[in-house]
Design a protein that fits this description.
Layout: H1 20-36, E1 43-47, E2 55-56, E3 60-61, E4 71-72, E5 76-79, E6 85-91, E7 102-106, E8 118-121, E9 125-129, E10 141-145, E11 155-156, E12 167-169, H2 177-185, E13 190-194, E14 198-204, E15 208-209, E16 219-220, H3 227-234, E17 237-244, H4 248-256, E18 262-266, H5 277-283, E19 287-291, E20 295-296, E21 302-305, E22 311-315, H6 319-336, E23 346-350, E24 361-371, E25 374-379, H7 389-392, E26 396-400, E27 410-415
Parallel strand pairs: 6-7, 14-17, 14-18, 15-16, 18-22, 20-24, 23-25
Antiparallel strand pairs: 1-13, 2-13, 3-12, 4-11, 5-7, 5-8, 6-10, 9-10, 19-21, 21-22, 23-27, 24-25, 24-26, 26-27
Helix pairs in contact: 1-6, 4-5
Bound molecules: ligand LQZAQKY5 and molybdate ion (MOO).
Ligand LQZAQKY5 binds near residues 207, 222, 267, 317 and 318.
Function: Catalyzes the insertion of molybdate into adenylated molybdopterin with the concomitant release of AMP.
Cofactor: Mg(2+)
Family: Belongs to the MoeA family.
């Protein structure tokens, strides 16, 4: 997606201090334009073992019946007709067909011999010696059912899960381990996917250290350990990570580096002499699509488009503020860049009261759980902009609207990228 043509219909920038819902929509549209203006192919087949987190570029169909043969669903005996049954020597693997009144040992998953009309579970069968004299020589023992056996009982018929040609998954599906397992069972080796957007991280700050207990005035980096996983969860992949101090020239170089579709920067979004994101974007000639968001925390966040079309998401340095800005801008950008719709917000009932905060959304880390009245959202404690304890125990951000909430009110929840 590098060296893009200038987009023909760039997203209308959200106004300075964009409303939270408008910032999400602008970010989603900007992400979508990464696909629409890409020069390189964005559709590619990917082997199953590499497909986790990719998005399907086309529908996927079953090429065969699933399962493709009729099999036993239980350990026991394959039987034909009504009992009692004469039990044949060997097992279902060595028996091609049964006649009415015959049975043979079978294990779960084995193909059924021809003529089998049911499977009798081990625990529901009783063996007795067959009367001597009149047998065929093959029949050794008589099998009785201890309870009635229905026609086709415990048989997994061919095609029960899917018929050949049936659609299994739709274009736009975000591939989880469950999809990969189902694709493997369907006998597929590759899946058609969209190329995963390449993300470059730019972590700023003279005071940031990456190991051990930070000294006085220093902080331990909160972003390096989490952003790659968070980006993956949102549908991108981190291909590059650069650490820079509070330096203008270094910021210009890092924000302008090629080979990526999206840059995610942390820190330096403010207006002090130590904050270089805004001047660097200006020097790069980048267009600001979102210039601050009317939200708390995270309001200094920015979304910009470079002259080559790549997007820059600038997250504030305060760690919780950065995560709130990431789900607001990063989730929608990466959804758009993989042809998915704007991430769906979950509804829950707030357990807490929030006073009005005119003009601003609040993003509050919260835990979701359920009771008979539905999904409940309990806001975390320790939720200041520079704190992370509350987030660690949470599964979403509540998007508290400017008018506030009473306990029991419905509220939109933004899932965390790793839930
Ligand atoms: N006069 C004003 N000051 C501030 C305002 C304002 O409106 N007027 N806004 C505040 C808000 S809100 C935020 S958020 C921050 C934004 O700060 P920056 O994006 O410029 O970030 P820094 O100044 O570089 O750092 C802020 C804070 O975050 C810590 N930080 C930075 N990187 C990391 C990291 N990798 N891991 C952990 N913590 C990090 C940094 O040490 C600072 O404590 O500005 C407010 N100020
Ligand atoms: O984005 Mo700032 O909190 O609002 O820390």
């Amino acid at each position: 997606m590098s060296d893009r043509r200038p987009p023909e219909a760039p997203p209308r920038p959200a106004a300075g201090n964009a409303a939270w819902p408008a910032a999400r929509e602008t970010a989603h549209l900007a992400g979508r334009q990464l696909i629409d203006t890409a020069d390189e192919p964005v559709r590619q087949p990917v082997g199953l073992e590499d497909a986790l987190g990719h998005v399907l570029s086309a529908d996927v169909h079953a090429t065969n019946e699933i399962p493709h043969f009729a099999a036993s669903a239980m350990d026991g005996w394959a039987v034909a007709g009504d009992g009692p049954w004469q039990v044949l020597d060997g097992d279902a693997r060595t028996t091609t067909s049964l006649s009415p009144g015959e049975g043979v040992v079978i294990v779960t998953g084995s193909p059924l011999p021809g003529g089998a009309t049911a499977v009798l579970r081990r625990e529901r069968g009783r063996l007795a010696d067959a009367p001597r004299g009149g047998g065929t020589g093959e029949a050794r023992r008589l099998l009785h059912a201890t309870e009635p056996v229905g026609h086709l009982a415990d048989i997994r018929p061919a095609g029960r899960e899917a018929h050949a040609g049936e659609r299994l998954f739709s274009a736009g599906t975000f591939l989880t381990p469950g999809h990969l397992a189902a694709a493997a069972v369907a006998g597929l080796d590759e899946l058609p996917t969209l190329r995963v957007p390449r993300v470059g991280l730019v972590l700023t700050g003279d005071e940031v250290v990456t190991a051990g207990l930070p000294g006085h005035g220093l902080v331990r980096d909160a972003f390096g350990p989490v952003l790659p996983a968070a980006v993956r969860g949102l549908g991108g992949t981190v291909v590059d990570s650069t650490r820079i101090g509070d330096d203008h020239a270094a910021t210009v170089r890092a924000l302008g580096a090629g080979g990526v579709d999206v840059v995610i920067a942390t820190g330096g979004t403010g207006h002090s002499g130590a904050d270089h994101i805004r001047p660097a974007l200006a020097e790069l000639g980048a267009e600001l699509l979102v210039d601050q968001i009317a939200m708390r925390p995270g309001h200094p966040a920015l979304l910009a488009r470079r002259c080559d079309g790549a997007l820059v998401i600038a997250l504030p340095g305060n760690p919780l503020a950065a995560m709130a800005a990431l789900v607001t801008l990063g989730g929608p950008v990466l959804a758009g860049a993989t042809a998915r719709s704007l991430p769906v917000l979950r509804r829950a009932r707030s357990t807490e009261r929030f006073d009005p905060l005119p003009g601003r959304y609040r993003l509050v880390p919260a835990r979701l759980d359920g009771d008979e009245s539905g999904v409940r959202a309990s806001a975390a404690t320790h939720r200041g902009p520079a704190m992370l304890r509350g987030l660690a125990d949470s599964s979403c951000f509540l998007a508290v609207p400017p008018e506030g909430l009473s306990p029991g009110d419905g509220v939109d929840c933004v899932p965390l990228p790793w839930t």
